[in-house]
Amino acid sequence: MGASDYKFEHFNVTFPAEYVAQVQIDRPKKLNAFTPAMFTSLGAIFNKLSHDENVRAIILTGNGDRAFTAGLDVQAASDSGFMTLGKGEDVARRGVKIQRHIQEIQDTVTAVEKCEKPVIAVMHGYAYGLAIDMTTCCDVRICAKDTTFSVREVEIGIAADVGTLSRLPYSGVSMSFIKDVALTARDWSAEEALRVGFVSAVYDSKKEALDRALHLAKLIATKSPVAVQGTKQVINYSRDHQIVDGLEYIKVWNASMVQTKDTEDALLAGIKKKKPVFAKL
């Protein structure tokens, strides 16, 4: 696959280095806010990247200087989103339609987490609402110092339902902080995000953050794709299970995966002090 296979409205998908893809949300005049159709595109992009043998690491960012994403385009959602579903119908029947709609949206965002390849989120400017939903699905989160975060949903009269409230408790930040920001919809800064552990690094500018993300992605792309994808899979599995379950999972996983030629090549490269070259996966 190449760039021509990733033509989606309001998204730019590029390949800035070998085995590295960059997904850029591209609606800067609207602060990269999401319309209903953009959710479908997001899911499709990450499902394709997941199986693209020419991709080993992914960067997720937003176009423009003002926002990673300001979240849901509330006007678009009011015109064609869940608020319009089943109007005038029996409450149970309308409820079923809304549940199905929420499930569809959840699935598109979950595609970021389910993607076999590591995903590095690079945030700047406004990172509101959906920004938290998406980036809690990512494997690494970094940002520029101008980033302003918010779990915005209570501000528009709903509880966040696309993943924030389910994934933030597994993000390494305290439950007190989660309830603080989720119940108030207050803004929090890049400095606070770093202090509580929501991001792993803060950079002076969007450019510096993107440069760092590209460095990380290129480094990941030099490793065995069998090892990298297996590591992501096992970490996510272990996060959601007991320690004994995680140990059993990696035991079964590596019973086959350590037999790969990648292991032999990596070991020999270390001995011979040569850079290994791994086959596509």
TrEMBL record:
GO cellular component annotations, sorted alphabetically?
mitochondrion; peroxisome
One Pfam family name is ECH_1
Q: Note the CDD domains from the entry.
A: crotonase-like (cd06558)
| Family in the record | Belongs to the enoyl-CoA hydratase/isomerase family.
Per the record, the GO terms for biological process are: fatty acid beta-oxidation
Q: Which organism is it from?
A: Neohortaea acidophila
Its main subcellular localisation, reduced to a broad class, is other
Key words of the record:
Acetylation, Fatty acid metabolism, Isomerase, Lipid metabolism, Peroxisome, Virulence
Which locations, inside or outside the cell, does it occupy?
Peroxisome
Record-linked SUPFAM superfamilies: ClpP/crotonase
Q: What is this protein called?
A: ClpP/crotonase-like domain-containing protein
Record has Nucleotide-binding as a keyword: no
**What PANTHER family does this protein's entry cite?**
DELTA(3,5)-DELTA(2,4)-DIENOYL-COA ISOMERASE, MITOCHONDRIAL, ENOYL-COA HYDRATASE
Pathway note: Lipid metabolism; fatty acid beta-oxidation
UniProt-recorded Gene Ontology molecular function terms: delta(3,5)-delta(2,4)-dienoyl-CoA isomerase activity
Q: Which InterPro entries match?
A: ClpP/crotonase-like_dom_sf, Ech1-like, Enoyl-CoA_hydra/iso, Enoyl-CoA_hydra_C
